[in-house]
Structure formats: structure tokens, C-alpha cells
Design brief:
- It is a single chain.
- The chain has 238 residues and is α/β, with parallel strands linked by helices.
- It has a single domain, classed as Rossmann fold.
- The protein is built from six helices and seven strands, in the order ααβαβαββαβαββ.
- Strands 3-2-1-4-5-7-6 form a seven-stranded mixed beta sheet, with helices on both faces.
- The longest helix is centred in the middle third of the chain and has 14 residues.
- The protein is globular.
- The N and C termini lie far apart (44 Å).
- Bound molecules: S-adenosylmethionine.
- The site of S-adenosylmethionine has 19 residues, from β2.
- One of its GO terms (biological process) is methylation.
- Its EC number is 2.1.1.164.
- This is Demethylrebeccamycin-D-glucose O-methyltransferase.
Length: 238
């Protein structure tokens, strides 16, 4: 089944839902070590792999996406694990959200800032960072110009296979771009983890390569019990 207005309808309609069940690794590591509780926002939540993990960690989560099919799958997934009460889905454009200051204890944006034009991504970034509480966690993942779907170097020279959903990515981040946003003083963040890397994706369509930047940060002045990923010295027996 296809739905021309939603490029993600079919990937989210599959029995094996695109992007799988497992939350983004850095989000999972943070929730595992630090835990959750409070209010969370999942922007471009898709079919909800991060939403459900946030809810399971104790957050009340608002999941926002353009894809009705994705949001329906989130509700199904949350209900299946008894977390329906912790998840609210909202169909809409992340660019049109008004995000009240100091409201969310966690904001996750796994590959959505790269699905909107660069100028809009910058505006949304400012809204997101202002919307974090003093103990808030922020996770952002974006495709970079290393991605073979990018029209810029080095991705455009790559011969590696491109994602079936690459057409939806319109704003490939340049090297260090996300890092520079995170460390500007107005962002009021403390960076826990930043990485730029290539990764193979086997979770949807023919296997393909990505270029990604990932950022895990907390509000400046917040010092949760974060031990790294992997934890530098895990507790014995864990
Ligand atoms: C690559 S998927 C990632 C989904 C999910 N975050 C994950 O990692 O599993 C990108 C998602 O962003 C959503 N999206 C793209 N542009 C959007 C916009 N302007 N407002 C809301 N959602 C958007 C798409 O519908 C899609 O579900």
C-alpha cells in the first residue's frame, strides 16, 4: 500500500516496521544509566522506537510526526507493552510547534532536523534548547554530507548504496555543524557525547550506508550519573 502524501507510510506499514524496535543506542544508554521521569518530546518520532523507550523509562512522552501511519504504530506499540497512558501522539509539522521554555526533561530528535530546510532546522534547534528544563537531556541525530545520498562531498563521490528513504533528507549537516550548535553559549548545553560516523543500516529496504552525526547533551549545569557509552567501568556483574 502506498500513500503519496506520506513517503514513510509504506515503511511504517510493514510487519517489520522500518528502523526496528530498538531505541537509538545513545538514548538507550542514557535511559539505562540515568533513568527517566518527567516530560519528554520525540520529534519526528516515526514509528516510535525512541518514544516507547522513553515511556518505559518513566517519561510522559509527546510524539510528533507528519506520518499518521507512524503515529498509529506508536500507539499500537505503546499499548502492547502497557504504556499507552504515557504516550500522546500528535500529527503535525515540527516546524509549527510552539515549545514553551523549560518544559521538557528530555527532547529526542532522531533524524528530523535533516528532513527540514536548513533555516527551519536552526529555528527549531533554538526552540528545542530553550524548551529543556534545567535537568533536561537532548538527543539529536542527523544525516551528514558523508552520506552517499548527499549531493555534497564526500557523500556524492561514494559508490555505496543509498537508503530507500534518502529522498526525504533535504538538509545534510556539514562536518562539525551539529557540534558547533551544541557548544554555542546560547544553547546552554553540556555535551556528553558527540560522534560523526558512517553506519550500515539493515533495518529497512536493501542494506545501505549512512553518514551520521549524533549528539547527546544535557542542560548546562546538569550532572547526571553518565558513565559513557560503553560505560568506562561498568558495575561488576552488569
Ligand atoms: C528517518 S525517519 C526517523 C523516525 C524516527 N525518529 C526513528 O528514528 O525511528 C524521519 C521521520 O521524520 C518525520 N518528519 C519529516 N519531516 C517532518 C516534519 N516537518 N514534521 C514532523 N515530522 C517530520 C517523517 O515522517 C519520519 O517519520
Amino acid at each position: 500500500m502506498t500513500q503519496p502524501s506520506d513517503p514513510f507510510f509504506e515503511p511504517y506499514d510493514r510487519d517489520e516496521i522500518a528502523y526496528g524496535d530498538a531505541p537509538t543506542a545513545a538514548v538507550a544508554a542514557f535511559l539505562d544509566q540515568v533513568g527517566g521521569g518527567g516530560r519528554a518530546l520525540d520529534l519526528g518520532a516515526g514509528a516510535g522506537r525512541d518514544t516507547v523507550a522513553l515511556a518505559a523509562a518513566g517519561y510522559d512522552v509527546t510524539a510528533v510526526d507528519l506520518s499518521r501511519r507512524g503515529l498509529d504504530r506508536i500507539q499500537e506499540r505503546a499499548a502492547a507493552v502497557g504504556l499507552a497512558d504515557r504516550v500522546v501522539t500528535k500529527q503535525g509539522d515540527v516546524r509549527e510547534l510552539s515549545l514553551p521554555a523549560k518544559t521538557y526533561d528530555a527532547i529526542v530528535a532522531t533524524t528530523v532536523l535533516d528532513h527540514i530546510p536548513a533555516a527551519d532546522a536552526s529555528v527549531l534547534w533554538d526552540k528545542m534548547t530553550r524548551a529543556l528544563t534545567d535537568r533536561g537531556m537532548l538527543f539529536v541525530e542527523v544525516h551528514t554530507t558523508e552520506d552517499p545520498g548527499s549531493d555534497q562531498s564526500p557523500g556524492r563521490e561514494s559508490q555505496a548504496p543509498v537508503s530507500e528513504t534518502a529522498g526525504a533528507v533535504i538538509n545534510y549537516f556539514k562536518p562539525n555543524q551539529l557540534a558547533s550548535w551544541a557548544v554555542q553559549s546560547e544553547s546552554q548545553l553540556r555535551v556528553l557525547r558527540y560522534e560523526e560516523r558512517q553506519e550500515w543500516d539493515y533495518t529497512h529496504g536493501p542494506e545501505h550506508l549512512h553518514g551520521k552525526a549524533i549528539l547527546l547533551a544535557v542542560h548546562a549545569g546538569s550532572f547526571p550519573a553518565w558513565h559513557g557509552q560503553p560505560a568506562a567501568f561498568p558495575r561488576s556483574g552488569t
